[in-house]
Design brief:
Layout lengths: L3 H25 L5 H23 L9 H27 L1
Length: 93
């Protein structure tokens, strides 16, 4: 992560990939587990909103460097996205 702009692009990319996979599943399997996939898509939008809120309104604690703060956001993105992809995999099974 070189800068905040790239972090925002990474958040968008990961979230949109999740949304794309959810939409593909819904198109291929219309009606089956649509509610669960819809909830997962809403969760993806929530992830994006939460992370963008943290990026745009940083609350960096005293004595902590900005780089470490944004690195934590990046790690949170990866963990939350991984959890969401695992949930989608369980739905697909």
């Amino acid at each position: 992560m070189a800068n905040i702009r790239n972090l925002k692009k990474d958040v968008d990319y990961v979230v949109y990939e999740l949304l794309s996979d959810c939409a593909t599943y819904q198109m291929m399997n219309s009606g089956q587990k649509a509610e669960q996939v819809g909830e997962l898509m809403n969760g993806a939008f929530q992830i994006r909103q939460d992370l963008f809120n943290k990026i745009n309104n940083p609350s960096i604690p005293e004595g902590k460097k900005a780089k470490a703060f944004y690195k934590e956001i990046y790690i949170e993105l990866l963990k939350r996205a991984d959890d969401s992809f695992k949930k989608l995999s369980e739905i697909v099974k």
